[in-house]
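Quick note —
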Amino acid sequence: MSKHDEFTKEHLKKLGDRIKTLRISKGYTNYEYFAYEHNIPRAQFGRYERGEDLRFSSLVKVVKAFGMTLPEFFSEGFD
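Predicted structure written out below.
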């Protein structure tokens, strides 16, 4: 695996962790309920939390579902 691939994988993991942490902090113990209530495909949302790749437009939709701006979203968990 190249350094670029490792860098990408590491940041996708951080992205997934951040999404999961925010979901739990909003009181959703199950990712499927959060996804359903915010009109996000449940299977896709599960992949996001696992740190699988996602499009920027999908990330924006998730961040908006948390009622945040992108700077707020990236303010924690990303060194």
